[in-house]
Amino acid sequence: LIERLRLQSVVSIKGTVRERDEETINLKIATGTIELAADKIELISQADSLPYSIDDGSKVREELRLKYRFLDIRRPELYNNLKFRYKVQKAASDYLDNNGFLYVETPMLTKSTPEGARDYLVPSRVNPGTFYALPQSPQC
User: Fold this and answer.
1) DSSP code, position 68
2) Contact between residue 109 and residue 134 where contact means Cβ atoms under 8 Å apart
3) What does the pLDDT look like over 63-113, one tens digit per residue?
4) Domain of residue 117, residue span
5) Phi (first) and psi of residue 137, to 5 degrees
6) pTM higher than 0.70 for the full model?
7) How far is residue 84 from each of residues 68, 76, 79, 97, 103, measured CA to CA in Å?
8) Could you tell me if 33 and 16 lie in one domain?
9) Cβ-based neighbours of 23, under 8 Å, separated by 6 or more
10) Which end of the chain has the smaller Cβ count within 10 Å, N or C?
């Protein structure tokens, strides 16, 4: 079974967790002092072959990386960029929250645009027969 497995396949493993032999200890990983002695391995879902190796992601054409974005964001370089962006946003949000600011999301009334997602139309009470459009777009 193990010889047929591909990266990203889902397996169920039953066994005993035990301390590693002295020569196999790896302190660079969280589980570096223990190992799983497998008694039973069951394939739950066989993964398709990956279009490229995550380790070689920076050597792959950008077009291919964008097509398989879910793989691309697992590259350490891109993952670290996303993690840094999150931490900056969180720090700003925490600062504002700790200083009494309140974040309120309100709808934005605007004219309809042809290239956006389908608009949610709101009838005007002041000008009967006219409508406002609530955009449903990530650009807003």
Assistant:
1) T
2) yes
3) 998 999 988 998 888 999 999 999 999 999 999 999 999 988 877 666 666
4) 107-140
5) -140, 140
6) no
7) 22, 12, 9, 20, 22
8) yes
9) none
10) N
